[in-house]
Amino acid sequence: MERLQKILAQANIASRRKSEEIILEGRVKVNGVIVKELGFKVNRSDQIEVDGKPIELAEHLYFLLNKPTGFVSTTSDEKSRKTVLDLLTEEHRDIRLYPVGRLDFDTAGILLLTNDGDFTNRMTHPEHEIEKEYLARVEGIVIRKKIVQLRKGVTIDGDYLAVPKEVRLIELNKDQQSTLISITLTEGRNKQVRKMMEAIGHPVKKLTRIRYDFLTLEGVERGAYRPLKVHEVKKLYANSSSKK
């Protein structure tokens, strides 16, 4: 048995929080009886109605998108900028998909899309420590002392100590006076990599997320996407459970 608001979210009626509001407003019936209790549990065989209409549980879908820069990782944008949903085919735009977490407007790389709220919560909650690896091309030549500083952690957002899972120096380009660095995080604060590099005096010129747990960009061109395989979804769940 599962909580009623969870079932409503899985049926793409609304987000879980919005589903709770719908329940409290008395708009939901279970087997013909109005339910206003948020902890109420139901079976999938129960007849559930919202505003007098029976709900249908949507098939859960999961996609890996190679996001280009110039797209926002939301389902809509108040500035009328293009969203990642604009990269989908018409068939998939008609499904209530949404990004799992975010990539900045000017950051490219792996972004997962789904209509599964539980999956999104599992992938984005810090306690599950899902690894995300970024390649950052930064201004200037980063000396070893700065790499050590990064590994120990740097303060961003005033008082937050950002400690990466791993930092690797990939390339020094003395001609262009830039450095390529790999940074792996298990958290996802807003513009975290950019703020960390600014903290050591080397602003980011180009940033790409190249890995999400075990998933990479292999075989997916920039701006394209593919469905996740069943075993990939299961492995993501398994890996997040093992780190809880």
Write structural notes for this entry.
The protein is an alpha+beta fold and 244 residues long. It has 3 domains: 2-54, Structural Genomics Hypothetical 15.5 Kd Protein In mrcA-pckA Intergenic Region, Chain A (Roll), CATH 3.10.290; 62-127 and 215-242, Alpha-Beta Plaits (2-Layer Sandwich), CATH 3.30.70; 131-212, 2-Layer Sandwich (Alpha-Beta Plaits), CATH 3.30.70.1560. It has helices spanning 4-10, 16-24, 90-93, 117-124, 144-152, 192-199, 230-242; strands at residues 2-3, 28-30, 33-34, 41-42, 48-50, 53-54, 62-67, 98-99, 108-114, 132-139, 154-156, 160-162, 166-173, 178-185, 204-212, 215-216, 225-227. Strands 7, 8, 9, 10, 13, 14, 15, 16 and 17 form a 9-stranded mixed beta sheet that branches. Strands 3-2-5-6 form a 4-stranded antiparallel beta sheet, with no helix packed on it. The longest helix is centred in the C-terminal third of the chain and has 13 residues, at 230-242. The two termini are 23 Å apart.
Helical element count? 7
| Biggest beta-sheet profile | 9 strands, mixed
The CATH top-level class label of the largest domain: Alpha Beta
What gyration radius follows from the Cα positions, in whole Å?
Answer: 21 Å
Mean pLDDT: 92
Oligomer category: single chain
Shape: elongated
What is the CATH fold-level name of the largest domain?
A: Alpha-Beta Plaits
- The CATH superfamily of the largest domain bears the name Pseudouridine synthase I, catalytic domain, N-terminal subdomain
Q: Order of SSEs, N→C?
A: EHHEEEEEEHEEHEHEEEEHEEEH
Structural domain count = 3
Please mark out the parts with pLDDT under 50 across 5 or more consecutive residues, or reply none. none
Beta-sheet strand percentage?
25-35%
